[in-house]
Amino acid sequence: MGNKTRFTFAAFLYGFIGASSVLAFLYYTSVIDWPINYGGKPTNAFPSFIVVTIILTILTVTLASLFTFSARAAIYPGKAYILPDSRSTDDKFVIVFDKSMLKGGAEKLNALLLKKVQLKYMKKSYNLKIKRHMIRKKSITALSIAVGILLLGSSCDRTRNDKGYEYFPDMVHSLTYETYAVNPAMADSHAMRLPAENTISREMIPYAYPATIEGRAQAAAELLNPLEATPDNLARGKEMFTVFCQNCHGESGNGDGYLFTSGRFSIKPASLLSEKMLAAPDGDIFHVITAGFNVMGPHGHMIRPADRWKIAMYVKNELQNKTVK
């Protein structure tokens, strides 16, 4: 005896719009505006933000559905309540039927109500102009102004040293000791500890060549790539080059990476296609990746030795071969 609601379809549409908007914003921030692909983190890391996507989608559905229902039902702050009959009270209520939607006519419904339900039936024309003002518009306006002034005043900070109130501070401030914090449990009160003498980390192989010109030349002369240039090794080398090298040296290796072309880095990185690098062996590239050179910092602690050799292999067999051809 009525039309099927389309509210569920509207809620689904709001969810689709909310999720699409969040994903588009994440794509813009992580790929277009600041496409940093460094340390193994891909630029388009949507799975890393799946919780944020879900929460914002739910928030969009909730707020949009609330506004839709309020608009459809004509509910808004300050609206006066309309009573179909002035005799309705807390223990008595009025049921209003639309005669145009009744099948069989109003008389049939009247007879059914009088026969089946213990109701006092009253047939009359209702005056919908009888209104009962519970909350007046002026009161809501005054209350909104007062709340706005209160929020504005509480948000001011002249010293700029107060971060304000924190919700769930235990999720913001770790209960463990920070790296440079004072630790009373230690004799020297230092939280950061040095490794035990004459020990190295598990799976760490000490690198014997220093980050100097002499060390680079020695490494280039003595180090040989132990891996073969197979398709799998070249594919892995390209992947690692994209993650760790491309932002500085560029996709083709000529030093026009995004960090330089965007102006975020003022010094142009070295070209891997220069005559010097074309003549350099794999060991030279392996050494520079491991120990760094000039303004380039060492990456040995971030990239495994096998992957460093695969990067050198990719540079020599793919990037530089394209230049020679």
- As for the CATH topology of the largest domain, it is Cytochrome Bc1 Complex, Chain D, domain 2
- Can you tell me the number of structural domains? 3
Q: What is the total tally of β strands?
A: 2
CATH architecture of the largest domain: Orthogonal Bundle
Mean pLDDT across all residues, rounded?
79
Output the number of helix runs. 11
Biggest sheet, open or closed, and with what strands and sense? 2 strands, antiparallel
Tell me the structural class. Answer: mainly alpha
**CATH class assignment of the largest domain:** Mainly Alpha
CA distance, first residue to last residue: 78 Å
How much is the radius of gyration in Å?
A: 36 Å
Output the strand order for the largest sheet.
1-2
- Beta-strand content: under 5%
Low-confidence stretches: 121-135
What would you call the shape?
A: elongated
SSE sequence, one letter per element: HHEHEHHHHHHHH
For CATH, the homologous superfamily of the largest domain is named as Cytochrome c-like domain
The oligomeric state is single chain
Percentage of helical residues?
40-55%
